[in-house]
Amino acid sequence: MSSLAATLSPPQAPKAEYRVLGAISASHMVNDMMQSLILAMYPILKGDFHLSFVQIGFITLTYQLTASLLQPLIGLYTDRRPQPYSLPFGMVSTLCGLILLAYAPTYAVLLLAAAFVGLGSAIFHPESSRIARLASGGQHGLAQSVFQVGGNTGSAVGPLLAAAVIVPFGQRSVAWFGLVALMAIVMLLQVSRWYAAHNLAAGPVSLRAVPSSPHPRGVVLFAIGVLLVLIFSKYFYIAGISSFYTFYLIEKFGVSVQSAQVHLFVFLLASAIGTLAGGPIGDRIGRKPVIWASILGVAPFALLLPHADLFWTTALTIVIGLVLSSAFSAILVYAQELMPGKIGAVSGLFFGFAFGMGGLGAAALGLLADRTSIEFVYQAIAYLPLLGIVAALLPKSQRRTR
């Protein structure tokens, strides 16, 4: 670990700090893996605690709503008063949620555990997104993609680990993953030292020059509204896939719990690969084409999904994961370019809104599933990617990195 600390020194030239990006991406992987363990445990928790689908949805709603409400506030505060050492503190909160999840005796304690995980994400995402931008060397899309792919990889690995460890050994085996969280805390301490040194070298926040937006205020606010509509479309749809995919496969095709979790892993892995591609492509050709293609382009596959057999369901979800996941990095960097100087607030707003829509979607779709069926839910959400057409209303991005 000392070698990592030695290499994470403040940059002297505008070049990408790949070791910093790697460290923050690895920490993002651990953070989101903890969240995905909750999702992957849903079949186990449903049986052990005799939960309905709407109660399952409320677990997702709890941790995502906690994150969504707090992230914009934390981002706005840290724009004015950077908090380099908030990152390991956020991971400590996630660790506490994990331990509570392992030993939760009641549904109420499950919700409390989910809230701790949400708090950890609320603290982690705005500052770590800012660090990714600082370490980008001007390749903002690439940096955000590297950062995001860590989270997506963690989300993908969670169900696989659940199938290998939690299903055979039970709920309390979740506590073993706390060792991974402890390693992430140590790594984040090294990143925080780099960030503190970099922030000190940049001088007081009040004296730094704030770049102006490339568009008038009215255009910026309208564009932010359009981007939030796109986030709603993406994450409401993703909530239906990630929260209920295992149940959909079990109910429709009769697969085992472990097989369903492997299918969920394949979908989330495809999402991680798509995330890694979206940012660099946006750096090269512009953010707007990536946003347009990634959300509206997935609509035909989403409409076909409810009518496919098991083989084509797997194939279609891989394509959906690859295409749809490329949007977020492009959307986030596009928004940061619209509002330069407010990186934390913008990151917190978009991460928070994404979490909120995911949580609201899980709760609403869980209620719909209880009253109808999982198959009906998949038929209903298939139309959401058509909202990607509103990307045509976005002004052209003014900044591009070759």
Describe the structure.
One of its GO terms (cellular component) is plasma membrane. By secondary structure, this protein is mostly helical. The protein has one domain: Growth Hormone, Chain: A (Up-down Bundle). The protein is built from 16 helices and no strands.
Summarize the structure.
By secondary structure, the protein is mostly helical. It has helices at 2-7, 18-40, 42-49, 53-80, 86-103, 107-134, 140-169, 178-202, 217-253, 257-285, 287-296, 299-304, 310-324, 327-338, 343-371, 374-381. The chain has one domain (18-204, 213-393): MFS general substrate transporter like domains (Growth Hormone, Chain: A), CATH 1.20.1250.
> How large a portion of the residues is in β-strands, by DSSP E?
under 5%
CATH fold type:
Growth Hormone, Chain: A
Strand and helix order? HHHHHHHHHHHHHHHH
> Helical proportion?
over 70%
- Largest sheet features: none
Report the top-level CATH class. Mainly Alpha
Question: What class do helices, strands and sheet pairing give?
Answer: mainly alpha
Q: What is the fourth-level CATH superfamily? A: MFS general substrate transporter like domains
Q: What does the overall shape look like?
A: globular
Average pLDDT taken over every residue? 82
Number of helices: 16
Tally of separate domains: 1
Poorly predicted runs of 5 or more residues: 201-209
What is the CATH architecture assignment?
Up-down Bundle
Using only CA atoms, what is the Rg? 20 Å
Oligomeric category:
single chain
Instruction: Let me know the number of strands.
Output: 0
Keywords: Membrane, Transmembrane, Transmembrane helix
Domain Major facilitator superfamily (MFS) profile: 20-400
Protein name: MFS transporter
GO molecular function: transmembrane transporter activity
